[in-house]
Amino acid sequence: MASLKKRFSGTEVKIFDPRDPSTGSGGAEVLDPTVLKRSDQWCMYLAGQAHGYGATEIYSASLPLKVPLSAAGWKLTRDAAGELEPVAGRNLSGRWDSKGGRHCPSYVRGWDPRGAAWVERIYYAGAAENLWGPYTIGFLQWDGEQWMDQPEPVFIANEEWEHGSVYEPNLIYHAGKWKMWYVAGSNREDYLVHGYAESEDGSTGWSKHKVFAPPEMKMFDFCVRQRGELTELWATINTFTKRWLGAS
């Protein structure tokens, strides 16, 4: 236990802050990062608002090529005019993620048996009409050159205990399955329940939605990470308290 306390000290380092010009945020509010290494570069995908209003988008940030993972040195991706550049358009997905935006990105690489290929995806919650939901879950997929949006969400609420809204997806690909933990319900109702489901292809054939953490736990912003043979589970309880749930 002492070694765990040393590894997870709780030290927090500010990376982007809309109120702090030194962070390079440029006034943009970006949050919910999913961090990964692609080729020789560390990058993250974040949800946020470039100017503090409107439907949220998914943006990216990166460290310089071949630089080790660090809290310092991150730069948001901007276009030639200096505006934050969304990672993908809404040519196909606008029907289900337009007015309410894209939230809670979760990057995962896994095997798609339909195309018989390894694929990269950014799963996220989309809202058709309102920033506050209700939400469904879909993904962007890398086509070798760019992230492509999809015409339909791939996961929707279908159980009474989900109260019609599913969001905060967190996924891994493990043992031949796309495994997803997610939040259902809403803060406005003071009702949050955490669910779990899995799929062979990450798009169709999801297993029966199961309660992973009951509403009395008020679990939010769950995080699962693979470390060798271990799967580590983290969560935010009551929206504020971070807790290490253990490993399996």
Give structural notes.
By secondary structure, the protein is mainly beta. The chain folds into 2 domains: 1-87, no CATH class; 94-248, Glycosyl hydrolase domain, family 43 (Tachylectin-2, Chain A), CATH 2.115.10.20. It is 4% helix and 46% strand. A 4-stranded antiparallel beta sheet has the order 1-2-3-4, with no helix packed on it. Strands 5-6-7-8 form a 4-stranded antiparallel beta sheet, with no helix packed on it. β10 and β11 form a beta hairpin. The radius of gyration is 18 Å and the shape is globular.
Detail the topology: elements first, then pairings.
Elements: H1 2-7, E1 29-38, E2 41-49, E3 57-62, E4 75-76, H2 94-97, E5 101-112, E6 117-127, E7 136-142, E8 147-148, E9 166-174, E10 177-186, E11 191-199, E12 210-213, E13 219-227, E14 230-237, E15 241-247
Antiparallel strand pairs: 1-2, 2-3, 3-4, 5-6, 6-7, 7-8, 9-10, 10-11, 11-12, 13-14, 14-15
